[in-house]
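=== RUN LOG ===
request id: a7f3
mode: sequence -> structure
chains: 1
length: 277
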Amino acid sequence: MSAPNPPKLIVSDIDGTLLDSNGRVSPRLRDTISRAARMGTKIALATGRPHRWLAPVLDQLPFIPDCICANGAVVYDPSRDEVVVRHELEPETLWRIAEIAQDALAGYGTYGFGVERVGSSAFDPEEECFLITPGYSPDLWDIGYGQVDVAELTSVPAAKILVRHPEMSSQELFDVLAPLIDPEEAHVTYSMNEGLLEFSAPGVNKAAGVSIVATRHGIERERVLAFGDMPNDVEMLAWAGLGVAMGNAEPLVQDAADVVTTTNDDFGVARVLEQWF
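=== RESULT ===
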């Protein structure tokens, strides 16, 4: 891959991309991306995580990046603990998505719903912002969540509504539900393979969030470099001037990228950045 112009904005997904399989930023990557930051290159993280779950990642970086969270629904400034931009689904849309899923998944076994409410700070109480129904089957990092019924879950605007089915893959769940959702009503994607779909406001994806950050810094699209590994990264990789898929990325993600690097455990992001920094 030739590298005639260094990027002005580097954007990286977090899980499976910036982090290795142990949840760490390797010293090699930390040194390389820190050199880029010292040279004036802007750095951003683009993740499906809410901003409340960024601290373990930010603590590993010697600089403060821009943060695009909840698959582009939230742009967050960690230097000021401020939500800069938010895009939310209204309660009636949340309820309608839940109804569609309930009808479609009847007979498929146990499943559940979750919502991510934006709040105002990364320090907002988790039980007020991440709510689930009893069948959701939360992950180990979903600590302190609030458990409610579907009516309460969908009663307040949210960045995302999640549908979780622990006995289906995310692709299987996508194949069942995505065709039933009007794209003018919600955007559907997934960021992990374990039976979890994520629904955001229409037009909301990581590319939209990155575009906001690039515009704020006066950086043209052609000078944006983006890294990712999952379907929720596809729009971002296609939008960026140079989109790089990880070696561990799903085939459809690699197809959307300009370049495929090595895996997140083989310094895939660092290997690309070392061409310039």
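=== NOTES ===
Residues 9-86+204-273 form a domain with the Rossmann fold fold (CATH 3.40.50.1000).
Residues 91-104 form the longest helix (14 residues).
=== END ===
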